[in-house]
Amino acid sequence: MQGRATDVIRSRAIGSRRRQSAGLVPALALLWLSACAGDQTGTVIAPAAIPAEAPRVTGRERGATDVDHAQLVASFGGEYRAPNALRLVSEVTDRLVRATERPDETYAVTLLDSAVINAFALPTGRLYVTRGLLALATDTSEIAAVLAHEIAHVTLRHASARSELALRSQLVSKVVADVLNDPETGAQIRSQSRFALARFSRDQELEADRIGVRTLARAGYDPFAAGRFLTALSRTTAMKTGTGVAGEPDMLATHPGTAERIILVTRSARLIGAPGLGVDERSRYLAAVDGITYGDNPDDGIVRGRRFLHPGLGIAFEVPEGFSVDNTRSAVLGTTNEGSRRMLFDQVETKVGQSLEDVLKATWNDGIEALENRIVAGHPAVVALSRGKDWTFRLAAIRVGESTFRMIMAAKGATDPEAAFRRWIESLSTVSAAETQSLRPLHIQVVVAGAADTPDSLSRRMAVQDRALDRFLVLNGLEKGAGLRSGQGYKIVVE
User: Which of 114, 325, 395, 440 has the smallest number of Cβ neighbours within 10 A?
Assistant: First the structure.
């Protein structure tokens, strides 16, 4: 749900973060980072997979790299402890590396406690996989496909090439703007370089896809697994956007569209051979991910039915009718199926004595009108209206104890979302200690299908109320109308 579905709100909101933001990764790591899928506490890294020193980094650089690693891990919810899954991922990584052009490279795998579906690599040989990605993959060959793609980025030295191009572009624009005293041309060059970098990065992704499929086959895994995983990712994105269509990147996106990538990796696999090559090791994979956490960690906020609860902040609210929400580390974001309404909830830092009216003005870029002081659900609040060119916004800053929260709803066009917005903000409440203690994280459970089981019957056992059947099908790599194999394991989500 992140991306274009909520950018219309995010682009107007400034200066707010709830607790720890995923945007806190330091600049050095951001230059290196190659995020490509786009999710038991702490990680146990198998000793054989840990190099004595960070690979390809020595001396003073090592300290900076370790700091980058620690801050990056913290920004994704910390390390995730799943020894069986980590052991499998580490073994798959070793097998893949032996099949590359650089079999002497050393890699260390870290699992991240994040529901986001993501994997990325640093040029030092550190690989990161979120538990959200582990939950989505259906067999060992699919997780191998993701890892092969990330390893390709490292062996091809993509991060170094991208950093060099970025620095060169910045230098040229600075010389034009400052030395030649031509700021306008300098700005134009900077704008052009953004497009060049985006194209360069997309080309890198496609190259990593091609090399990754080749490595996958060389290592003895099913080369068609890359296409299967990307298809599952696309279906998941379509469910989150609520449109039934996966969102595609804009002109400045650093990744190609998922559909384009599926076509490319499928073509690359067919050049190797017909379907049926290699192994998928499905049973082994399901055994390794059985029991891992699924979805949000209750400590960071969780949706139960139509209610969002955040024990750490001590608040809850009813998700507006027709909205699907995504709980990120910096905000709760939401959109309706057709995308005509959007919402944002976050906590903002305030200065001592700062009024709620000043909070809204300081954290919103556009003009504000119709400011009004109210009592909302027993708490002091200021609500306001903001009219943009294409959207109409309702805003509220609400003080609960010593904390201040923003609630923003947008409606496309001139329609004022005031009625739905009012119901939403008035649903804000505090979370009791008893309710906090009752919250349990969801997790993946592998069940064996019986002769009478169907996707519908197993999906009814899922502890999710939103599109349970669709989620069951995606989690198990099944299409609508598919049957189940008696005696085979399938993933369901339970409390």
Answer: 440
